[in-house]
Design a protein that fits this description.
It contains ten helices and ten strands. By secondary structure, the chain is an alpha+beta fold.
Length: about 325
């Protein structure tokens, strides 16, 4: 009897330990968790909507006051996690554009820089949108500050070589809207050309409401190792009528009678006006054999190319 009693106690103990939870317990917990998640998502959506509305006012409201930017932006930052806010700022969610686009187009620098600080990285859509904004405003300085003209391969090569960012400045000549002087300072020019895997380098700039590029490249057809150069229009740019374009490369000779500046007309001599469409370029012109010479006078003692591009549009 004692043995039977002990077995009975063991069975009772085992049954208690392995007994399944009640139906009420199983059914209640998932519902509570689901309801909590739904409410959490709903609250986050409401916050995002409210923040987007405030950002809309910062970049588009007609009664904009620069002094109100800091408080409004801080309120947005306090309302959402940093990643969520950055995502909102880089989406095309305000009349088909990003908030940063509207801050540039509406000339609200205080708003732009305050919002940019809250942006961790740009999506491809955001980058394209910012390029369009700089094109509309012909703001080359902003284009350079945001590093919108850097090609990934050349940027990686520059960083590998420890080369600083290139300097590209655009000047309007004598107040005439269709004449430009573009000044280039390209560090380690020869070394970067030789090391470029695709044997070409692009340098973009904004002028006349368009994004242009100056291109140095080695043609695919045999050319006796002579590098060429050309200029052209980037994608999604309006057509342009080019009347003249001359690239002038400075010489750095310390001796009397040294090399003269190298002038390279980028339009054919018999071409009065060349109409360029999006992604089109002028016919390539030879740079000359100096590019591969280690002792050339067309870069300074640090290997920097100093050049200017004089161009006139119709």
């Amino acid at each position: 009897m004692a043995a039977n009693s002990k077995a009975s106690d063991d069975n009772s103990s085992t049954a208690g330990a392995t007994a399944p939870p009640s139906y009420d317990t199983i059914s209640a917990n998932p519902i509570q968790c689901s309801q909590s998640s739904v409410f959490s998502v709903r609250r986050m959506n409401q916050k995002c909507t409210a923040v987007l509305s405030r950002i809309h006012d910062i970049v588009l409201a007609p009664d904009f006051t620069p002094s109100s930017v800091t408080s409004n932006v801080n309120a947005c930052a306090a309302a959402l996690p940093a990643a969520e806010l950055s995502n909102i700022l880089t989406q095309l969610n305000i009349e088909g554009h990003t908030a940063l686009y509207w801050a540039i187009v509406n000339n609200r620098p205080e708003a732009f820089w305050a919002l940019k600080k809250l942006t961790s990285c740009y999506s491809s859509d955001c980058t394209s949108d910012l390029r369009i904004a700089c094109t509309i405003t012909s703001d080359h300085e902003m284009f350079m500050q945001l590093n919108l003209g850097s090609y990934s391969e050349d940027r990686r090569l520059r960083e590998f070589l420890g080369c600083p960012q290139d300097e590209i400045q655009v000047h309007t000549c004598d107040g005439t809207a269709n004449q430009f002087k573009v000044v280039f300072r390209i560090g380690m020019f020869q070394k970067r050309l030789r090391m470029a895997t695709k044997k070409d380098l692009y340098y973009e700039f904004v002028a006349g409401g368009r994004i242009w590029w100056l291109h140095f490249y080695m043609p695919k057809l045999p050319t006796n190792g002579i590098w060429h150069t050309t200029i052209g229009l980037c994608q999604r740019c309006y057509s342009a009528c080019l009347c003249s374009a001359v690239l002038v490369i400075e010489a750095h000779s310390q001796k009397p009678g040294g090399a003269s500046p190298l002038k390279i007309p980028l339009l054919s001599t018999n071409t009065k006006v060349l109409t360029l469409k999006s992604s089109q370029s002028t016919k390539g012109k030879e740079l000359g054999g100096w590019v591969m010479h280690n002792t050339t006078e067309y870069v300074d003692h640090e290997g920097t190319l100093h050049a200017k591009l004089d161009m006139t549009l119709l």
